[in-house]
Amino acid sequence: MENSPELLEGEWIIRGTNFPLWLSNKRSNPTIKYEKLKNSPLTFLDTVSYKNKKKQQKQIIGVDTYKQNRFIWRGRGFLKILSSKWSVLTVTDTILVIKFERSFLTPAGIDILVRKGIELDDPKQFILRSFEQYTITTSEFDSLVWL
């Protein structure tokens, strides 16, 4: 990741996930925006946006710091007490695959994201065409729900 942080920067749309936050029908249209804050240690502002049941835009803001081959997310504001760990499995100009570890409040999981502005009608089929490149197991892939 240290060699290509510019690939992570930008806005991504979550298109496949097994994370309960996105599967509960209480939130929709999830996106994540990464803005690089500094190079050493590699640090990003992480802004998760979504719509709630009332169609209001909401955000979860945190900071990701790269340490020991993974990112450590720490919430901002009243979420400062929360943290989680996640890794980039694959990042290209089009696709981002992230795997997050179990935390105090959340289970482990996988998100498949598509860069905002890239039209990809069926990300599941796109991933299946070159499955081995995305560093996820068959069981992880089978657990994903496509949004």
In short:
This protein is globular.
Keywords:
147 residues, mainly beta, Lipocalin
SSE diagram, text form:
Elements lengths: L4 H4 L1 E8 L2 H4 L3 E12 L4 E10 L4 E11 L2 E6 L7 E9 L3 E6 L8 E7 L7 H7 L8 H5 L2 E2 L1
Number of helices: 4
Q: In whole angstroms, how far apart are the ends? A: 27 Å
The CATH superfamily name is Calycin beta-barrel core domain
CATH topology grouping? Lipocalin
Structural class based on helices, strands and sheet pairing:
mainly beta
Q: Estimate what percentage of residues fall within beta strands.
A: over 45%
E-strand count:
9
Unreliable spans are none
* Relative helix content: 10-25%
Largest sheet: 8 strands, antiparallel, barrel
Sequence of strands across the biggest β-sheet: 1-2-3-4-5-6-7-8
Mean pLDDT over all positions: 94
Encode the helix/strand succession as letters.
Answer: HEHEEEEEEEHHE
- CATH architecture designation: Beta Barrel
